[in-house]
Amino acid sequence: DHAFWETQPVGQLKPELDKSGPEGPIDDPMTVDEVKKEGYHLPPSFEWCTCDVTDKKVNDEVFELLDNNYVEDDDAMFRFQYSREFLKWVLQPPGYVKDWHLGVRVVGTGKLVAFITGVPAKLSVKGKKLDLAEINFLCIHKKLRSKRLAPMLIREITRRINLSGIWQAAYTAGVVLPKPIGTARYWHRSLNVKKLVEIGFTHLHSRMTMSQTIKFFRLDKKPATPGIRPMEDKDVPAVTALLNNYLKKFAVAPVFDEEETRHHLSMRDGVVYSYVVEDPDKPGKITDFVSFYSLPSTVIQSSGGHSTLRAAYSYYNVAGKADLTRLMEDALILARQKDFDVFNCLDLMDNAQFLKDLKFGIGDGNLQYYLYNWRLHNKLGPGDIGLVLT
Ligand code: MYA
Ligand code: JJ1
Questions:
Q1: Which domains does the chain have, with CATH numbers?
Q2: Which atom of ligand 2 has the smallest separation from the CA of 75?
Q3: Which of the ligands is closest to the CA of residue 141?
Q4: Helices (H), the chain
């Protein structure tokens, strides 16, 4: 039963509730004039706030709420620890709207107890270009769970986004809600297998010792692709063209202009890492691109001196001249050089091509993809998804 989601313009899990119609918007069109101008009511002890993540104090409050209360794996062993710098990065893309960084505070004390964010993006969905919001960081303090606060956050952020004339959204979650447009699986490639075993992230294969396992996951010291180097600002036009040309083959994918490429895909130490391949025979010619972002997790039952898992997550990759498997092997090497413990990857885009060859193992987590107020008739396969949300 989904008392809230059954009231929303999304696909329904129960076939008898799922309204049929053409692919496209589910709700009748609306105008900004028809959108409620005041905020929804919260229980009297709570109030809405807009969170300015450039304000050091607010950034700390958001960091702390998420650090203690955000997403965990199924066995509550690891919890995402988005860094302060990461939050500033992902919440301020070109055209971001401050009002879409929504918090809930306790009246009197001012304590931040809930959060949800939207950022503007352009998505191509089966050839139609949609200006929509990407929703992320829905989080409610552990002490306030199961009180139906999440539907209030979702309704209020929807209202704030509608006030900008935006009627669609994209989001992902680990849980199944009405109704996934596609499902991806997480795969994991050990970089520091000794630590991963010590913290319970992975286990030794039976009949394999630790030293055999370390040898099995060993990587070359340096990337092998001739001309691979960190992305620079001068690469933005070439990377934008390479990326948009590659992403057009997927049913759902972002469309980046140069400003957005600069924002999402420039090197930022400790946050996002991007590399291009510059053709050694044709200086200035960019043929390939790889990127990953840093998202550590807190080790919840920290024992044996490891309090954080340093994880790199595959972001956008385009193989041109190089073969995708060789390019991703270089990404593993570069992540190892940056001292990441594990390289995580979803089985979407063309990733299924290299996961097994590069010794990734399947994880226990799924990632469900959703669209708000946009009907699709058929569920997408992971290979049709070209969108990675941070
Ligand atoms: S996904 C990450 C979500 N965050 C976490 O998992 C962190 C840890 N968990 C928590 O903080 C809480 O458990 C949350 C739920 C906040 C998740 N997405 O208040 P409740 C439904 C959407 O009593 P709580 C991400 O950030 C649930 O099915 N709905 O529950 C993307 C039930 O509805 P129904 C969810 O556990 C977020 C209702 O909430 C989720 O205290 C995209 C219960 O509310 C979930 N992950 O709080 C949001 N989990 O009865 C949607 C549970 O119908 C955006 N629920 O089953 C939609 C587009 C909006 C913009 C539109 C613009 C046009
Ligand atoms: O990280 C994840 N799983 C790990 C740790 C599992 C710990 C026990 N539950 C995992 N490790 C095993 C890997 C190993 C590979 C080689 C072979 C042997 C096994 O599987 C999982 C993903 O797999 N992560 C999560 O569950 C975190 C939540 C994911 C959903 C995120 C939703 C966020 C949406 C916000 O927009």
A1: 5-170 (3.40.630.30), 183-384 (3.40.630.170)
A2: 9
A3: 1
A4: 56-69, 84-91, 149-162, 193-198, 210-216, 236-247, 258-265, 324-337, 352-355
